[in-house]
Amino acid sequence: MNIAIVSLAIFLIVSPAIIARRTYFTKELSKSFTNKNTLQEIFSGIFLAGVLHAIWITFVELIGYKIDFDILFKLLFDPRSITDYSNITDNIYKIILYFISLTTVSALISYLFRNLVRVKKWDRKTNFLRYDNNWYYLFSGEVLDIKKYSDDDEISSDDVNHRLVDVLAKSNDSEVIYRGNLIDYQLDKNNSVEYIVLSYPMKKQNGENKIITSNYFVIPYSEILNINIKYLSTTQTEGDSDTDTAE
Amino acid sequence: MGTKKEKSTLHKIIFGETRTRQVSGSSKRIVSDKFLSKQVYTKVDKNGEFTIKSKDGKSSYSVRQLRPSR
């Protein structure tokens, strides 16, 4: 019973940080979050939870509420010593409101900060803010914004709107090169590529070139020996244009 | 000729439009056209900058390979 109460209290205290971290690692960069289990995530969130609660406790005390630290510490470290839970039950709606408001505000700030980091390219300018989804940076062409890969200020990922790949793959006893337009890719739970999707790939085998007429050609990563990526910038110079901006 | 307006930084931050698309702009036409794709495949090794034309000759595209200077 006591272990259950302590576990529930820890989970409740850490949950705003878990949700804030989950919000930060969404969309294209979600792999940084999803390759951790719940226990790892609780440990990762403890420091952030401490910071969030310190800020929120200061705020709620400034607007006139009082936090009962005595019962809080007893709940965490010695629940048996609590003889009277009335301070919790009498203020249950205020406690719920505290957690809901903290979770909502921290998730919102986390979401906006994440977008700010991405839009301002801070994740590419500093190692500290970089996500560990290396394949995303490589396949999108955002590596061109990272100094380690490119010192050239004349080109950036904003110029890339087409990726061409040469894939050396195993085929029975021989090796085949597929050249194609990179359309999509899928990562597995270990943050490795599961497969890549090409359109109209050209197959090079035994000195012969053949275009495979397929909308989408999927190559499992287990069949791939290496990948060569070319970043292209294409613009329509004549004819009806449907040009939009690269995002 | 319909060129879409670049969205503001604030718009991107609020709506979370932060993903770099794999295919965007005029490359949408190239990746969905066998004839154009084939031209890109054959010309890209010879030259870092080249032009390709659609099968009917009505549209042409300028293609540039982005190579960092170092």
What helical percentage do the residues of chain A reach? 40-55%
Could you tell me the strand content of chain A as a percent range?
15-25%
> What is the average of the pLDDT values of chain A?
87
Number of strands of chain A: 6
Count of distinct strands of chain B: 2
The SSE string of chain A, one letter per element, is HHHHHHHHEEEEEE
Main β-sheet description of chain A: 6 strands, antiparallel
Uncertain stretches of 5 or more adjacent residues of chain B:
none
Strand order of the largest sheet of chain B: 1-2
> What characteristic shape of chain B results from the CA principal axes?
elongated
**N/C terminus separation of chain A:** 52 Å
- What is the CA-CA span between the terminal residues of chain B? 37 Å
* Overall pLDDT of chain B: 86
Characterization of the model:
Chain A: The chain crosses the membrane at residues 43-65, 95-113. Chain A: Keywords: Membrane, Transmembrane, Transmembrane helix. The complex is a heterodimer of chains A (247) and B (70). Chain A is α+β, with helices and mostly antiparallel strands and 247 residues long. Chain A has two domains: 2-120, no CATH class; 161-232, Roll (SH3 type barrels). In chain A, 42% of the residues lie in helices and 24% in strands. Chain A has eight helices and six strands; from the N terminus they run ααααααααββββββ. Chain A has helices at residues 2-24, 31-34, 38-62, 69-77, 86-89, 92-119, 122-125, 134-140, and strands at residues 162-171, 174-187, 193-205, 208-211, 217-220, 224-238. Chain A is elongated and about 85 Å long. Chain A starts with a helix and ends in a 9-residue tail after the last strand. Mean pLDDT of chain A is 87; it is low at 243-247. Chain B has 70 residues and is α+β, with helices and mostly antiparallel strands. Chain B has a domain at 25-70. In chain B, 31% of the residues lie in helices and 16% in strands. Chain B contains three helices and two strands. Chain B has helices spanning 9-15, 27-31, 34-43; strands at 49-53, 60-65. In chain B, strands 1-2 form a two-stranded antiparallel sheet. Chain B is elongated and about 40 Å long. The model of chain B has no long low-confidence stretch (mean pLDDT 86). Chains A and B meet through helix 6, strand 1, strand 2, strand 3 and strand 6 of A and helix 1, helix 2, helix 3 and strand 2 of B. Strand 6 of chain A pairs antiparallel with strand 2 of chain B, so a sheet runs across the interface.
